[in-house]
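sorry for the late reply, my laptop died twice this morning and i had to redo everyting from scratch. anyway the thing you sent over, i finally got around to it. pasting the sequence first so we're on the same page, its 73 residues, then the predicted structure underneath. double check i copied it right bc i was rushing
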Amino acid sequence: MVSTELLNTLRTLDRAEKLHILQVLVSELAQEETYLLRPDMTYTVWSPYDAHEAAEAMLKLLKTSETEGHAQR
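ok and here's the structure:
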């Protein structure tokens, strides 16, 4: 949780100082992101290719939606 004292201090800074703080924080966040993916690991990525069950479910939903849409008109 961010302290009220810290927020009040940040509010008193001028624009350039606020931008510098923002730049430092964004840089630190970007560095943390690099640790999420490791070069020696493999990661499973889902792809819509060969997802026949999902395609069938979507087609069924679309057909149901079309039928209901015509019935309401």
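The chain is about 70% helix and 0% strand.
thats about all i looked at so far, will dig more tmrw
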